[in-house]
Amino acid sequence: EAGVTQFPSHSVIEKGQTVTLRCDPISGHDNLYWYRRVMGKEIKFLLHFVKESKQDESGMPNNRFLAERTGGTYSTLKVQPAELEDSGVYFCASSPSTGLSNEQFFGPGTRLTVL
Amino acid sequence: QKEVEQDPGPLSVPEGAIVSLNCTYSNSAFQYFMWYRQYSRKGPELLMYTYSSGNKEDGRFTAQVDKSSKYISLFIRDSQPSDSATYLCAMRVGTGRRALTFGSGTRLQVQP
């Protein structure tokens, strides 16, 4: 079974540019999460999709960040315009909807560098 | 103040040692407690999870939760060089919301 995949693995952009990160969850997982780890800090929650609906977006830092999950499969996270403080590693995770599953399966992350 | 405090280490131990990793937290609403292991350039991988207080054992790993003290621990017995990684504690509230709150992670190095 394929795990959570993320693309690209690394992105370097200039301040003010736009970047779109993609996450493909494990097939059949209705729950999809975005987290990020900025330099020297802990991993922090951004938002949670159930299928195509945003269940919880309380962690989104500001309106420069836009997450979508059209069709309830893969998700994208767009940062527009990017700022220096957006640099970090962006993780995607997914989990099934059955029972009280607490296991969120994480992808390898996208390392974003804003210059 | 952070909701979850975790000593960043690094922690260096000889092969075969017992390792103790800990986190403290401030939010009494946390009900699920997890330990993740993260190797360099990889995503976190779930090792153990515990609901509410108590102990849970899985092979060489034991997780303990003391809700009265807001303190959780992960013990690794007979540590191996392959256990060298960053260990992250994570927790979430009991109902509805599934967002995980992470500690900053402890780097563990097991010396052969």
Please give the structural blueprint:
The complex is a heterodimer of chains A (115) and B (112).
Chain A: E1 5-7, E2 10-13, E3 19-24, E4 31-38, E5 44-50, E6 53-56, E7 65-68, E8 75-79, E9 88-95, E10 105-106, E11 110-114
Parallel strand pairs in A: 2-11
Antiparallel strand pairs in A: 1-3, 3-8, 4-5, 4-9, 5-6, 7-8, 9-10, 9-11
Chain B: E1 4-5, E2 11-14, E3 19-25, E4 30-38, E5 45-51, E6 54-58, E7 61-66, E8 71-76, E9 85-93, E10 101-102, E11 106-111
Parallel strand pairs in B: 2-11
Antiparallel strand pairs in B: 1-3, 3-8, 4-5, 4-9, 6-7, 7-8, 9-10, 9-11
Written account of the structure:
The complex is a heterodimer of chains A (115) and B (112). Helices cover 0% and strands 49% of the residues of chain A. Chain A is mainly β and 115 residues long. In chain A, strands 2, 4, 5, 6, 9, 10 and 11 form a 7-stranded mixed beta sheet that branches. Chain A is globular and about 40 Å long. Chains A and B meet through strand 4, strand 5, strand 9 and strand 10 of A and strand 4, strand 5, strand 9 and strand 10 of B.
In DSSP terms (H or I, runs of 4 or more residues), the helix count of chain A works out at 0
Largest interface: A-B, 25 and 25 residues
Residue-averaged pLDDT of chain B, rounded? 94
Nearest-integer average pLDDT of chain A: 93
Main pleated-sheet profile of chain B: 6 strands, mixed
Give the C-alpha Rg of chain A: 13 Å
Principal-axis shape of chain A equals globular
Strand content of chain A: over 45%
Q: Give me the count of strands of chain B.
A: 11
Uncertain spans of chain A: none
Oligomer: heterodimer
The topology string of helices and strands of chain B comes to EEEEEEEEEEE
